[in-house]
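User: Fold this; tokens only.

Assistant: Input:
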Amino acid sequence: MDIPPVAGLAKDMRYDGFLLVRAAEQRAASNGSRYLDMTLGDRTGEINAKLWDGAYAPPPAGSVVRVRGLVHEYNGRLQLRVERMRQAVETDKVVLEALVPCAPEPAEAMLAEVRKAVDAISRADLRALMHRLLDDAGEALSYFPAASKLHHAERSGLLHHMTGMLRMAGHYADEYPSLDRDLLSAGVIAHDLAKIGELNASTLGTVSDYTANGMLLGHLVLGVVHIDAVGRETGCDEEILMMLEHMVLSHHGLPEYGSPRPPMFPEAEVLHHLDVVDARIFEMNAALSKVRPGGFSERLWSLERKLYRRREPGQENGDTQA
């Protein structure tokens, strides 16, 4: 039986399949009976779900459950009335790509590309520092998103963002020989690594909240502190270490975006623009994928504008679905 995606659900449709738990809590009805109020979803969207049985404990956010129930309408919105539910098990062989957005390339391949870029760094001290930073990131780097929302908020999104920027950095270094290719590559790899300490993310790549360090310090400060400690431990040249720390600290560009210093040398400036371009193209593509050719997206608050999706040759205005 074909299981419709959440975005394809309609009133009176029966559902029997696997969904990701985005939120779940037990509540009390007006008559005192207990029930579960949940937000369930897949990569296409989410739906409110009710399970009117107080014997069920709330499944953890970020877990996968198999649910069976009926879609109905409540206060003008679709709702799933769950009849049966259980946690997914390994033998279910759930396809993660159907439940959560995933990077378009395997994490193993992207991580190998990043390691290769570190191996290509000619400075031994900087190369040793970068290998140590990747080692410290550990297994989390293979699944961590680059953000809780917006750009590269997907499983392995941090690696997706990193490899995309590394590829562009190579073109910049080819075009402008005055750039320090080693330093630029190191800055790309290091600039968002501290997201791993800033966000609470599951192995599915979904973010539940910020950590205390993330809320109080943020990934720019966390990144600089860690780079400084590891760089001094591994014996990295003090000037190179200072410049790498500046690149991390300044890669947001402006104080209103979180950087206490603007980029103050070419490699830092290029890193800032690589970060902006890679993030914005991702957000634009995501928004335009939901728009009919010849139409406009909703206003994106991160970009403060709407986006236009062009029509391909042979398409009539607005006649073709996205």
